[in-house]
Amino acid sequence: MKKIITYNVNGIRAAMAKNLSEWISGVAPDVLCLQESKAHSDQLDKEIKELEDLGYSHYWHSAEKKGYSGVSIISKEKPIRLKYGCDIAHIDSEGRVLQADFENFSVISVYVPSASNMDRLDFKMEFCRDFSNYIANVLLTHPNLVICGDFNISHEPIDIHDPVRLKTVSGFLPMEREWLTEFLVENKLADPYRYLHPETQEFTWWSYRAGARAKNKGWRLDYHYVSQPLQHAISECNILGEAIHSDHCPVELVLNIK
After folding, report:
1. Which of 33, 75, 174, 192 has minimal Cβ neighbours within 10 Å of its Cβ?
2. d(CA 218, CA 114)
3. Which pLDDT value is given to residue 169?
4. Residue 58 near residue 72, CB atoms below 8 Å
5. Domain segments of the chain as ranges
């Protein structure tokens, strides 16, 4: 069995200050994919020591701009191969894609841009199209693939607390949702959480404003997507809403593989 967790920590240093390492020790993932780490590895001496003391290897792909974006993969087992970025300049300069290959599967940690500033919507959609093409090529050589991350899109009405009022807000725009459907269909990817919990409404992100988390006015933005050869191995997928180190919460996937 492999436990793979994805978590947008909204700043690794801030999350570690809220006892993230103690939480990691308790849930004991085999692989932990982080997004929005907001730091370069040379700024993380204390945090890295805590991870290493827990027995984890760690790999960081940071944005050129400090304090922004960034993804990481933290794992008990050292990967056979790592790929930093996806050879697309406008994506790689923002530290948004990191891949780790293990013996029987590969994991990608991805942080899709937000477009809360609508000026970034064109950039977000360009990223989405380029990322989909990139994944199609990755699957040709890495068929056992798990994509983990913050997609900054709520896919279906069940994935957002107010689908009618928010249909004109980025993150739930028709064009974003249509892209996500095409991404899954064209690459034959499954959403393990929705497969196992078809009618459950749970969220993974809440605004810090107006007590949104306490009122559970959230969005499901964080996903695992599993390639076709691994879909038979889906065992569990759970949203871990009790973890409060960020405005997001982690999502846990358990695959019945070695």
Report:
1. 174
2. 16
3. 94
4. yes
5. 2-255
> Which residues are registered as beta bridge partners of 160?
219
In this prediction, residue 116 carries a pLDDT of 78
Cβ atoms 206, 166 nearer than 8 A: no
The tokens for 21 are 């390492």
Q: Tell which residue, 227, 152, 214, has the closest CA to residue 186.
A: 227
Phi-psi region of 204 (alpha: psi -120 to 50; beta: other; left: phi over 0): alpha
pTM above threshold 0.85: yes
Among 140, 136, 106, which Cα is nearest to 230's?
A: 106
What's 248's DSSP letter? B
Any alpha helices (H) in the chain, and if so which ranges? 12-17, 20-27, 45-53, 89-92, 121-141, 174-186, 192-196
| Residue 7 confidence (pLDDT) | 98
Helix axes 121-141, 174-186, angle to 10 degrees: 10
Residues of the chain with pLDDT under 50: none
Write out the CATH class of domain 2-255: alpha beta
Q: Structure tokens of 118? A: 């609508």
Q: For position 138, what pLDDT does the model report?
A: 98
Is 162 known to be catalytic?
no
Instruction: Find out whether 159 and 181 touch, Cβ atoms under 8 Å.
Output: no
Provide the residue type at 225 as one letter. Y
Distance of CA 67 to the CA centre of its chain: 18
pLDDT at 129: 97
Cα–Cα distance measured from residue 213 to residue 242, given in angstroms and rounded to the nearest whole number: 11
Amino acid at 41: S
Alpha carbon distance 121, 58 (integer Å)? 32
Query: What distance lies between CA 159 and its chain's CA centroid?
Result: 16
**Of 30, 150, 159, 191, catalytic:** 150
**Quick one: pLDDT at residue 130?**
97
